[in-house]
Design a protein that fits this description.
alpha/beta; seven-stranded mixed sheet; 16 helices; EC 3.5.4.3; metal-binding; hydrolase; Metal_Hydrolase; guanine deaminase activity
Length: 438
């Protein structure tokens, strides 16, 4: 029997397909200027035109009125480091010195479970304030950092993916596990957390240079033993990093081939950055349904390079957007879209706003093999959604009042919006954030 029926009125948008590969016969999205979202027991029961659906509601059903605002699926951030929250906006000359100067000392503090719990709470507050309802999260080498994160997300009822970093070389002793201890701790955490409530586990070698071949071998064996887990790591972010990988793995065809040789390219594998790939790398990603997490704010901040959307699309690579905090400089997926648009322009391609919102919702869910669970308003999907306010700031209000299309509305939100544009965030039908107003 259906319980806890809820209804929400507002302009309604969700995606059915990638706008880059859709046409009039196969529309990319469903848009209702006056829409209604019906939620029951934490899942979507219906989404569509208000006039049509309102008549189907039982008598006395309370309708939460968000007229003038947009209802859309919550954003999905496919690559972010919760331990780096406190070192966001730290200056460095590039990726490798940034890791040594800021990242590793900051992550050392997560051997303290109380510190990890405190940061996890703040991190989740920031995600929800920015409208992000699911993220693929890097913890630290410490198992207690994973326990702290999943405990905090479980208390809020969130759909989150996370994992303990595996790192047994080329890092400080205070952050170093061993191939065997890293695999053992990872397996224990998988058994403790994977599919417990809304938690999902990601096997997480930090990146090839900080793992021995033995550790990568064991990570691949875990990926084979637990095929419904996720894999997350970094690849081809920075030219100096790529050169380092060539020195460390001289027999590998390429950086991504290192992971491929250990069985880590498969569905539910998420590769951060993917800037300096060659055509065979992209083809291999498409063949294995491995996905790319595009991190434009981080790539610009660290001077890593520009992601090539056109070549990735030509190869058929699964794509999503990610903040990559703390290399990334904002938790906001709207600000991430802003930078993604500019990166595309600098590489000679164009990202329509519709596609940017797709990549942050259904595109990310597809990249994670979670379509039907999160990412749009399909019947039965988990009711993770946000309320977006086009009048959140004076400039947004002025610009959106003059919009003449859905594309113009979304483009203004992507280029001018930030956390202030998120009026409310819901997870499994429960409000988990509401914007404070003065």
């Amino acid at each position: 029997m259906t319980t806890n029926l809820q209804a929400y009125r507002g302009s309604l948008l969700h995606f059915l397909a990638d706008p880059a590969f859709s046409d009039e016969s196969h529309p990319s999205h469903d848009w209702h200027e006056d829409g209604l979202l019906i939620v029951a027991d934490g899942k979507v029961q219906a989404a569509g035109d208000y006039a049509t659906l309102h008549a189907t509601l039982p008598p006395n059903t309370v309708v939460h009125d968000y007229s003038g605002k947009l209802l859309m699926p919550g954003f999905i951030d496919t690559h972010v480091h919760y331990p780096q929250t406190d070192m966001i906006a730290s200056p460095a000359e590039g990726l490798l010195p940034w890791l040594e100067t800021y990242t590793f000392p900051t992550e050392r503090q997560f051997e303290d479970a109380a510190h990890a719990a405190n940061v996890a709470e703040f991190f989740l507050d920031e995600l929800l304030r920015c409208g992000t309802t699911t993220a693929m999260v890097y913890c630290t080498v410490h198992p207690q950092s994973v326990d702290a994160f999943f405990t905090a997300s479980e208390q809020r009822g969130l759909r989150m993916v996370a994992g303990k970093v595996m790192m047994d070389r080329n890092c400080p002793d205070f952050l170093r596990d061993t191939a065997e201890s890293g695999a053992r701790d990872t397996e224990t955490l998988i058994q403790r957390w994977h599919k417990r409530g809304r938690a999902l586990y990601a096997i997480t070698p930090r990146f090839a240079p900080t793992s021995t071949e033995r550790q990568l071998q064991l990570a691949g064996e875990l990926a084979a033993a637990y095929p419904d887990t996720f894999i997350q790591t970094h690849v081809s972010e920075n030219e100096a990093e790529c050169a380092w990988v060539r020195e460390l793995f001289p027999n590998a065809r390429s950086y991504i081939d290192v992971y491929d040789s250990y069985g880590m390219m498969r569905p539910r594998a998420m590769y951060g950055h993917c800037i300096w790939l060659n055509e065979r790398d992209r083809q291999r990603m498409a063949e294995t349904q491995s996905a790319a997490a595009i991190c434009p704010t981080s790539n610009l901040f660290l001077g890593s390079g520009l992601f090539d959307f056109e070549r990735a699309d030509d190869a058929g690579v699964l794509l999503s957007l990610a903040t990559d905090v703390g290399g990334g400089t904002s938790f906001s997926m709207l600000q991430t879209m802003n930078e993604a648009y500019k990166v595309a322009r600098l590489k000679g391609s164009y990202l329509p706003a519709l596609r940017m919102f797709y990549l942050a919702t259904l595109g990310a869910a597809r990249s994670m093999q979670l379509e039907g669970t999160i990412g749009n308003f399909a019947v039965g999907a988990e009711a993770d959604f946000i309320v977006v306010d086009p009048q959140a700031t004076p400039l947004l209000q002025r610009r959106t009042a003059r919009r003449e299309s859905l594309e113009e509305l979304l483009f203004a939100l992507a280029l001018l919006g930030d956390d202030r544009a998120i009026a409310a965030t819901y997870s499994a039908g429960r409000q988990v954030h509401v914007r404070e107003t003065t």
